[in-house]
């Protein structure tokens, strides 16, 4: 046993801030803490030895304080918005446009569908866009919920954001309306949507019955086809739950690659225990090393753990990423990782640009010169577009729950929820719930 780093966390029962200690054992790295009222807690945060944990830790040391930050009175994680002690200004902003949903998934970080309906008006959404511009924007916007497509005015929400200067819009969706409604994907693209972040947990219906409450594979596949026909980029987003779909990682990647470049990549999200979660928390949840081992083993080494690196702008223990060039013979060539160790970028702005470039669908066709020949600029645009069509991204985000929350990690978060009361709140703080499901921010 090696005790090697002091930090802070919270009690899973009462969410009180506690001193915490990272501990290295032969089988992994653990986060330990003791609540004076509720006792001791220990959570696995890394499968591997201390050397592998430290080797993963390349990250940018660039300071990016939030713009117009709030004063920190109580301290992290209670003063987010963002507060003056936060170390990143933000990259991706989740704008929840409804808490309604046409599913009631047993696993849902937002606990969508519980409680009274909450939907900001278009004027309120416009004010949230203005707030973001005054606090470091424009950022990448993730339209989320609930299920955003429950709102018939979703195209208007996109247009309002475009008019204010936001350039990248991602739709976080279960895909049911996209699958069922001909022309809906084209409508959203015309309004300014770039990417569909599609809930896509497996390639068999038993996975959906467990995680989403009903068989959905046919609808998911139809949603991908509709988006591809509309020229919308699609990123498959599987929640990976131990014993449920961790044996389908390779199958998911193969399914996605067969549908590239319409499918731009796969973004794995190992299950975190916050919000509504009907699955019991295991002693050994899926960590980054286990996720990479699953990828390598189930792709027969076509995608190797060594191809991946951690985040550069965010804390490296939050994410993993690799990009591949798809060759004509179907083989994959891993693209070089950044020298500073970041998956996409060293700063929040770099990350924002990298995500937009990789995940967007077809851009506009290159303009032609009057005589019909490509201009120099158009030729370069065409070359870059073709190069982007040949790349495929594999990434993931390991969100923190009340057992694994590490305030050192949280202070570097650049993925925030936009809240009219609290401002810009780091995702893991906004969705943090105690053992009884009570939240710090989400009401």
Question: Could you please describe the fold and organization of this structure?
Answer:
With about 450 residues, the chain is of the alpha/beta class. It folds into 2 domains: about 1-55; about 90-360 and about 375-395, TIM Barrel. It has 13 helices and 18 strands. Strands 5, 7, 8, 9, 10, 11, 12, 14, 15, 16, 17 and 18 form a 12-stranded mixed sheet that branches. A 4-stranded antiparallel sheet has the order 1-2-3-4. Helix 5 crosses helix 7 (about 215-230) and helix 8 crosses helix 9. Mean pLDDT is about 90; it is low at about 340-345 and about 365-375.
Summing up helix and strand content along with how strands pair, one would put the structural category as: alpha/beta
Report the CATH C-level class of the largest domain: Alpha Beta
Mean pLDDT: 90
The parts where pLDDT drops under 50 for at least 5 residues are: 338-344, 363-375
What's the number of helices?
Answer: 13
Shape: globular
CATH H-level name of the largest domain... which superfamily?
Aldolase class I
Q: What is the number of strand segments? A: 18
Strand content: 15-25%
Question: Looking at CATH, which topology of the largest domain would you report?
Answer: TIM Barrel
Major sheet attributes: 12 strands, mixed
- Round the Cα radius of gyration to an integer and report it: 21 Å
Query: What percentage of residues falls in helices of 4 or more residues?
Result: 25-40%
Corresponding CATH architecture of the largest domain: Alpha-Beta Barrel
Question: What structural keywords apply?
Answer:
single chain; 443 residues; alpha/beta; TIM Barrel; 2 domains; twelve-stranded mixed β-sheet; four-stranded antiparallel β-sheet; 13 helices; 18 strands; globular
